[in-house]
Specification:
flat; five-stranded antiparallel beta sheet; disordered C terminus
Amino acid sequence: MKKILHNHKIAFATSLFTALPAPGQISIAQISKANITYPWWAKMNDSGQVVYYGGGSQIDLWSNSQTQVVVNEDDPVPGDLPNGHYIFSDHLIGSLAIVPELAINDVGQIAFAADFATHSSTEDGTGNGTWLGQPGAFELVSTLTHGFWGIDSAGFVLGDTPGILLLAPGEKIPVASPGALVPGANNLTFVQISDEPIVTAAGYVGYAASTTSQDTADGIWEYTPAGSTIMLMYAAQQVPQLPTGIVYDASNSQPPTLAAMSASGNVGYSDGLTGSGTTTSNNWAIFADISGSFHALVRFGDPVPNFAPFIFSNHLDAMQINDSGEVALVNDITHPGVNTAPALFRWKQDQISIVAWYGEYAPGFGNGWLLGNFNQMFMNNNGQILFTSDIRSDGGTKSVSLATLWLVGENNQPELILRTGIPTYIDGQWITFQDIDLLALNNNNQALISDPKAGGLYLITLAPEPTLAASLLLLPLYFLKRSRSSAA
């Protein structure tokens, strides 16, 4: 096995250490002190506007450093409801919390879902609704009980009935539904649509679905803004770029999974494989459709490039794909005698590179601290990757665990941005993070994070190019420049 050598250069931006130039200008603002317990309680668009569940039974909008209330419980319900005047019930995000019932698009339109009820104590007229608009000007989109899955820039909300459709005030565009003919497959009809479709800013919709009575999907489709539907893969089809006789599998153990979509409709997905030459050690893979071109990214059992003797395992934890066709993914790796562990990769122009892996020495923390699991990961159209990881002790010699936030540029070297356990100067006060949840990364290099333990919602701005404007740096964070080489 090759030994991985590390060359660490550490810079602390405090009075106790000499500061070195950071990888980019970093600034941070506190949006709210609210406790964002769940990631779907806060959403951000490319303009840096943030809509979030502010606590105290309300939804708030943060824009241009100003906060305004979007809606309160007990407000009159906007829109035309059949029985007149309704009020919201005790929870805006509660019984339907399995879907993201809060969204904001790039033109500032907000979608939210809520329960409603009459003033009467008899519970007559209770139900669920989805509304679209801006503070003071919301319209009812739907009273479907399943909520919604996101919003595009044209103001269409993706809802499900249990089929899926695009909804706007007074408009309804069917996308897919049980009983409908399957695009690209002769004489087949949909039986069940997956419960996790994706809608992008440009109006593309991706979904997995089954055409038989089995519980899992057997294909993946993409609906385009032009109204057409493309079948990306279907069970028993020959897999492009793989040897003849290897086909997509749709067994319950490894069903097709829609993993990621970019705004412009690039798609990432995984599926099992069966047929000629497949075994239990190579029967799964990850694929991408980029501008209509198929790419096989990773196959179970293939060697990890420049990281022998490790091979790719068959477990995808997270995936992101951008409009340029770059892919970031967290996938397990393994080799005989070693436990399977996750690693972060970047795929670009048919080349895949390992960026970080579970169990390596955490850059900047010295011997004894190792990277743990990758908890959240995002990539934007500029190729920036942000991820969070728990830092764990080596051999149990340290009892303290730390949460950390890392930035990865095109050089594939993680740079530490934020960590728990040390005071951070934000908006005129010192704040010590107890935990870090990464909620979003937009295409203007802004990240949305929260501290689910201590409370608080924050916007971090990452400049695309290095700068020496030290007065604007987030203090007292430290930054690392890491180079890595392999030696036999």
